[in-house]
Amino acid sequence: MQVRVFRVVVVEDDTALAAIALQLLESRGYAVRLAETGAAARAVIAEWHPDIVILDIRLPDINGIEIIREISARTDRLRPGVIAVSGYDDADTISTALELGAADFIRKPFAHREFILRVNALMQLREYKVELEQAREELTKNLGKLGRYFSREVLDSILDGRIAETLSGELIPATVMFFDLRNSTSLGEQMVPGLFFQFITSFFGGISDIVYRCGGSISKFTGDGFLAMFGLREHSDAASILALSCSLQIREHMELYNKRKPPYLKEPVGYGIGIATGPVYAGNVGSRHKLEYTVFGDTVNLAARLEAMTKRARVDILVDERTRKACGERLTVRRLQTSSVKGKSESVTIYYPETMPHMQDELLYGDSLK
Questions:
Q1: How many CB atoms lie within 10 A of CB 100?
Q2: Distance of alpha carbon 255 from its chain centroid, rounded?
Q3: Is the peptide bond before 109 cis (omega within 30 degrees of 0)?
Q4: pLDDT at 370
Q5: How far is 80 from 56, CA to CA, in rounded Å?
Q6: Looking at the chain, which residues constitute the CATH 3.30.70.1230 domain(s)?
Q7: Which of these CATH numbers, 1.10.150.390, 3.40.470.10, 3.40.50.2300, 3.10.290.10, describes 7-146?
């Protein structure tokens, strides 16, 4: 493993004192550069990106306080730490330097041991900051990878402990969407396995982008379909509206896809979507060796039944009463029937969504439904 060499800029116009500082620092393994004026200090700081600047307050051309102010105004997380140095016992100058962001202050002439101890202490703090920044970058990268498997709200709930690391769950509201690719078996028979895999990957890639762009998350792929959740940890009417918006954008996407479908597809690609809103049981299933966070319950079953009913109704999307009510006047629908749905003892009113204005940016980033 390569050892990092920390960089120090000494800003000092006293030649003898500068030579002492350089010798002390270089003997401890630091990489050191000297600047004898404020202008030279600005140049070497901008070019060399040092870890520490040991800065004489009284310079021949620029007040060192101005350089401290410039460094403190930088927005990068790892801007250099500053040790202010002065031979004048001016309490106001010392206070100003520290208030503006200098990490420490040393009076000239300084004891060699004290000088090195102060530099070492600041450099150790600097090293902690570097390690923290590296850990932050690694965490961000890992969260990005996990985001391909879990929604942001589920990830946050796992990290802050709202989702326990045990075989348990809770009843919470959510909007559930089932998507199914029609005739996947016959499509597979038309293509060699490699081509079919390429088709499935590309096809669901485009659909998944729409789901996540609308604030949803795909909980599970089923081979030729998927289960998506909206508002799983923080549900409101906005989640139902986003789910409907998502389904209508998928409709537009599929119309365009079938107009420009790949030459190896003989027929237009069909699909079905079912959406239901209500309580779901969300929790961990599996064993102590492997946990899967998933949802199940009556609302999930209803969404699956509605998707299946799209075949018989010869439509692409069906939604339940709760989802339609959440969308209010925004959604133009056609009521298909009041029907008994398989697995439910009571009748269910079913709606076919026709149009709804695109509102996802407002709902995802605005305040209209908070």
A1: 18
A2: 31
A3: yes
A4: 36
A5: 15
A6: 152-365
A7: 3.40.50.2300
Give the span between the Cα atoms of 193 and 187, in whole angstroms: 11
For residues 338 and 173, give the distance between their C-alpha atoms in angstroms, rounded to a whole number.
24
> CA 96 to CA 20: how far, in whole Å?
27
Q: Would you say 259 and 220 are in contact if contact means Cβ atoms under 8 Å apart? A: no
CATH number for 152-365 (one of 3.30.110.70, 1.10.8.60, 3.40.50.720, 3.30.70.1230): it is 3.30.70.1230
Per-residue pLDDT tens for 308-329?
A: 999 888 999 999 999 999 888 7
Residues 347, 365 contacting (CB under 8 angstroms)? no
Q: How confident is the model at residue 369 (pLDDT cuts 50, 70, 90)?
A: very low
Digit-coded pLDDT (tens) for 227-272: 999 987 778 888 999 999 999 999 999 999 888 888 888 888 899 9
